[in-house]
Write a structure and sequence with these properties.
Blueprint lengths: L12 E6 L3 H12 L4 E7 L3 H7 L9 E2 L10 E4 L6 H10 L3 E4 L10 H9 L2 E3 L8 H7 L4 E10 L8 H5 L11 E7 H7 L5 H9 L6 E7 L6 E9 L3 E8 L9 H15 L7
Parallel strand pairs: 1-2, 1-4, 2-3, 4-5, 5-6, 7-9
Antiparallel strand pairs: 7-10, 8-9, 10-11
Length: 277
């Protein structure tokens, strides 16, 4: 009679974090508390001394490296850095046949060669739902025919300050008393004009009809304390509308649910049952 071998759990996956802002720190805290099946393998930051002071003492041994040194340390990278860095973060991982979880998905529109590189080398780019609900429904509807997709975003003015679209047009939101529509156009144009604000719109467009067919209105609303998004979809399989109010993180441009979406994405990789498309 053979000795029974102990059951083997899933292989622990090494995760790297690129960027240590509000999202990156939330992920560090999650790893510090324990995330079954995963280990924090490395963090890419510019100011390593400052980053080391922010890390929990239990994570003192985690390597702090430059972006170019990140890939050998991990199986998966979570990109939560400035959009301009997306290619330098993602390309080494997908070239090595690994996975990259991308939050600055607006930057994918000008770096679509990353998708081809991932396809060629067996890598994968994953865009979590982030601050927008309903991407499963949009993805399903896109298997048939979608007639139209429209998104309406309303944000407190401080969540839009500094956006290139506003700066270039000298749109000053200081002292705004009434809601003001500051943009109406395509998701592609929004990604250029609001690179730190509208990754949700690009995620919606990639799930559905594409960045040039997805319409978007952006409002600065001084009466709001939360970022709100409403999407309206008309398809041959269903017509639906959904709204979400996101509680901001320490960074007013980013909702708390964004980091939680990354954590949920990671957990799905090892889950014995997966809910959702």
């Amino acid at each position: 009679m053979r000795d029974q071998q102990p059951e083997q759990g899933p292989k622990r996956l090494r995760v790297a974090i690129a960027g240590l802002g509000a999202i990156g720190m939330k992920l560090v805290e999650t790893f510090d508390a324990g995330l079954e099946g995963f280990e924090l393998a490395a963090i890419a930051v510019r100011d390593k001394e400052a980053a080391r002071r922010r890390l929990p003492t239990s994570q003192a041994a985690v390597p702090l490296v430059d972006i170019g040194e990140l890939e050998p340390h991990a199986d998966i990278v979570v990109e939560c850095a400035p959009a301009a860095l997306i290619k330098s973060i993602v390309e080494p991982f997908v070239t090595a046949g690994k996975q990259a979880i991308v939050l600055s998905c607006g930057a994918l529109l000008v770096n679509m060669e990353l998708v081809e590189i991932a396809k060629k080398h067996g890598g994968q780019i994953i865009v979590p739902s982030g601050a927008l609900l309903g991407l499963d429904a949009v993805t399903a509807a896109a298997q048939g025919r979608i007639h139209s997709v429209r998104m309406i975003t309303r944000k407190p003015p401080k969540g839009l300050v500094g956006a290139p679209y506003l700066v270039e047009r000298d749109i000053d939101l200081t002292g705004l008393k009434e809601p003001l529509k500051v943009f109406s156009g395509t998701a592609r144009d929004a990604a250029v004009g609001f690179p730190a604000n509208l990754n949700v719109a690009v995620a919606l467009s990639l799930a559905g009809t594409g960045p040039d067919q997805t319409r978007l209105d952006i409002w600065a609303d001084p009466g709001l304390s939360r970022n709100t998004h409403t999407i309206e979809v008309d398809a041959d399989s269903a017509s639906f509308s959904m709204s979400i109010e996101n509680i901001p993180s320490e960074n007013p441009k980013t909702g708390r649910i964004t980091a939680l979406s990354v954590i949920a994405t990671l957990k799905k990789m090892h889950a014995p049952i997966r809910i959702g498309t």
